[in-house]
Specification:
Layout (H helix, E strand, L loop, with lengths): L6 H51 L13 H51 L5 H36 L5
Helix pairs in contact: 2-3
Length: 167
């Protein structure tokens, strides 16, 4: 019993070691591949968000995100869509405001032009008509001044609210 050869046991241990190393190598490769696939799956929604942000920065405000899956990604998608809605509403309001201001400024200018053209086109008009037309022109100038002062006041108020300090 004492003279039993250990050679076969060493060979068997070496074979087992090789098989264990092969299994560990295969498991490591599978884990790395799984991690790469899982990280790709997690990064895909973030790439969609980045792509949508790039489209918005290029001026396309009709971008909407519809992502489902992880609750955090769905929450980000909903917040993103709400932000786009707010931006679109502000842009619409800005365009409407500019249109209204443009109209309000064009009206007195058009009135002054008509009055001035009338004065220039007719010779020998009585002084009272000149005074009346010049009074109307002065009223239109005062109206424009009031509109411009109101606009400047709005700009100052907007600047003051945007410069609030958060402590």
């Amino acid at each position: 019993i004492m003279s039993f050869s250990m050679k076969s046991l060493h060979m068997m241990a070496d074979t087992v070691k090789r098989k264990v190393y092969i299994v560990l190598l295969i498991l490591t490769i599978l884990i790395v591949l799984g991690a790469v696939l899982y990280s790709t799956l997690l990064a895909r929604p973030l790439k969609q968000i980045t792509s949508s942000i790039n489209e918005i920065s290029q001026g396309d405000m009709n971008v909407k995100l519809h992502m489902h899956g992880f609750s955090e990604i769905s929450s980000i998608s909903d917040s993103f869509n709400q932000m786009i809605d707010v931006i679109q509403n502000q842009d619409t309001a800005r365009q409407e405001f500019v249109s209204n201001v443009s109209h309000e400024l064009k009206t007195p200018i058009a009135s002054m032009k008509v009055l001035a053209d009338s004065l220039l086109s007719q010779e020998g008009m009585p002084e009272e008509i000149y005074r009346e037309f010049l009074g109307d022109i002065t009223n239109e100038i005062e109206r424009m001044t009031k509109i411009i002062n109101d606009l400047l006041s709005m700009v100052k108020m907007d600047k003051n609210t945007s410069q609030m300090e958060v402590v």
